[in-house]
Amino acid sequence: MTKTIQLNTTERDPELWAIADSVVDPEIPVLTLVDLGVVRNLKRIDKGVEVTITPTYTGCPAMDAMAADLKRAFEQRGFEPVTMKTVLSPAWTTDWLSDHAKDKLNKYGIAPPPNSTADKNALLGKPKEVKCPRCASTNTTMISNFGSTACKALWKCEDCKEPFDYFKCI
Amino acid sequence: MSQGTNSALIKFVIRLGDSNLILGHRLSEWCSNGPFLEEDIAMSNIALDYIGQARVLYSYAGKLDGGKNEDYYAYERREHEFTNALLCESANGDFGMTVARQLYYSVFAYALCNELLKSKDETLAGYAGKAVKELAYHVRHATDWTLRLGDGTEESNKRMQHGIDELWMYTHDLFATLESDKELVAAGIIPDVAAMKGAWLEHVKDVIQRATLTMPDVNAWQMEGSRTGRHTENIGYIIAELQYVTRAYPGCEW
């Protein structure tokens, strides 16, 4: 049985989570690492803190930057030592993006995943509808399932004719 | 975990890591050489997935193996110490051959990771939980391209068929196992990889036939040896390029 780290939102230490929430995704700066669901647990240990994170995609090159940014954010606020811990399970999923996070993505120009991964189409078929973040049309087509970063695909809108990034459902 | 099981597990984790690294390296050779920009980026992204997966596995092997660093496995071993599947080191060839290699490998890896989700080893199961989702996209990509090229023009069909045919002799090696695997299977840590071949064959055959391509002869001669470090001539060139910097500047750091 895999041991999973459950995100217990009822027992969050507000100060710790506020610090984590101040760190943004280096590639998508409208999202914080808390929005993304990368931060799984925060635990005070004496004067220090243990930060548990989970990688998004296994090869995501931004993970090292995220870990370094988080560590620095806590160190700058006087926590010492700051221990970074990485867990693989439960596997990171776009299901953890809140509606608020998806809204921020959309306003930034990246179409958020409309389906949950419970929809089998999400991974092995085509997503039901991907809305253009500029004109909101659903008359959109995929150009490539692999875009500018590991997490994004490249789509285009047949109505306003603009290309846009789509945050892949995973 | 017993010494024997630990040693068997290290071997398995390294060989999966090796397949991922070597294939990731091969795919990275398409970077800036792709047939068109979107596919150049796709190949690079897929390569990144495999390299990331290799890192997770090498880090785990290092932990099991007395605290070695992931870099040791990638940069300090020699050709005969790599136990990647032979298919992974095959040359990219043209785009059709690369797609054929992706079809054969990603269908296998996806099935393997689906089995590893049930592994009694927490780290392997956790690894599989992530890898299986990334691999689903790889399978989709390889399938879509096989269909498009096979059921395309006369030229694309010819090249896709060539890839299917040329790489066929490396496919049985995907399912090669070691004696030490037996205790991992008994302990519920890995599935019986050899037994996965039947389902793999059905899946691959379905795609190939839908693509109006011809399935290779299932009884044709197959190359073997990867699990004991016997390779094709490709491995030397790959290692020379992969390890050049670390061997030229031992102990270097970014």
Task: Set down the secondary structure blueprint.
The complex is a heterodimer of chains A (about 170) and B (about 250).
Chain A: H1 14-20, H2 33-36, E1 39-45, E2 48-53, H3 62-76, E3 82-86, H4 99-108, E4 110-111, H5 121-124, E5 140-144, E6 152-157, E7 163-167
Parallel strand pairs in A: 2-3, 4-7
Antiparallel strand pairs in A: 1-2, 5-6, 6-7
Chain B: H1 3-28, H2 37-64, H3 70-75, H4 86-89, H5 95-116, H6 122-150, H7 154-167, H8 181-186, H9 197-210, H10 234-248
Helix pairs in contact in B: 1-2, 2-6, 5-6, 5-7, 5-9, 6-7
Features:
heterodimer, A: 170 residues, alpha/beta, GMP Synthetase, Chain A, domain 3, 2 domains, B: 254 residues, mainly alpha, Ferritin
Description:
The complex is a heterodimer of chains A (170) and B (254). Chain A has 170 residues and is α/β, with parallel strands linked by helices. Chain A folds into two domains: 78 residues, GMP Synthetase, Chain A, domain 3 (2-Layer Sandwich); 72 residues, no CATH class. Helix content of chain A is 24%, strand content 21%. A four-stranded mixed beta sheet of chain A has the order 4-7-6-5. In chain A, strand 5 and strand 6 form a beta hairpin. The radius of gyration of chain A is 17 Å and the shape is elongated. Chain A starts with 13 loop residues before the first helix and ends with a strand. Chain B is mainly α and 254 residues long. Chain B has one domain: Ferritin (Up-down Bundle), CATH 1.20.1260. The termini of chain B are far apart. At the A-B interface, loops of A face helix 2 and helix 6 of B.
